[in-house]
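The methods section describes the discrete structure representation at length, but only in general terms. What matters is that the chain and its backbone geometry are given together, residue for residue. Nothing conveys this as quickly as seeing an actual entry. For illustration, here is how one protein appears when written out as sequence plus structure tokens:
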Amino acid sequence: MSQNKLPTDPRAMLDVLRSGITQLDPDLNPETLQVAIVASRFNAGVVDRLVHGAVSALIEQGVAPQGIALMRVPGAWELPLLAQRLAHSGAFDGIIALGCVIRGETAHFDLIANESARALMQICLDTEVPITNGVLACETEAQAVARAGGDAGNKGREAAVALIDLIGVIEAAETSFDLIELNQPVADFDMDEVMDAMEDMRAALDESERKKKKRK
């Protein structure tokens, strides 16, 4: 059994909850989201199924149909440029990239698949706009078909669900923590205040230890 199909272990999750850590669950209103799907025309028979899976999943997740924009480019190589333009536009809360590259007789397959994925990740990090990668990189057409609604699921659907989950977690983080203060430059900190606070914490710990010894 593959790792991503392992069932949830309720005992393990109970231990996590009992540990007292802060757990953030996705928090957003999907009806207000604006999502872009950028898809390649190459291997259209497969990619169209990925698009269908992504659109269906977005609507099931609560995204309004008018909040979904579909745009097509020639192939997977062209996906990053369009994704970059859309990310910089500020018009979209997230982007789903869909395509299909099937290995041939040359190294062209590796070049396209690797560089497209690398560029999409870099755009995501540079713009801080969530982007999920649903570009298939398969050895055969049969593998691609299996991952576009066949026995291996629909990677377009999975990319859409992952995007909504990611947007929700980011929203939860931004509303749960004072990220403005956390992102202040180090120069803004008063080192004397920091040292005083550390000294107070040390004194409190020492006092707690003394009380424990007295009880013993």
Q: What stands out?
A: Helices lie at 10-18, 44-60, 79-89, 108-127, 141-146, 155-176, 179-182, 191-215. The two ends are 51 Å apart (CA to CA). Residues 184-215 form one domain.
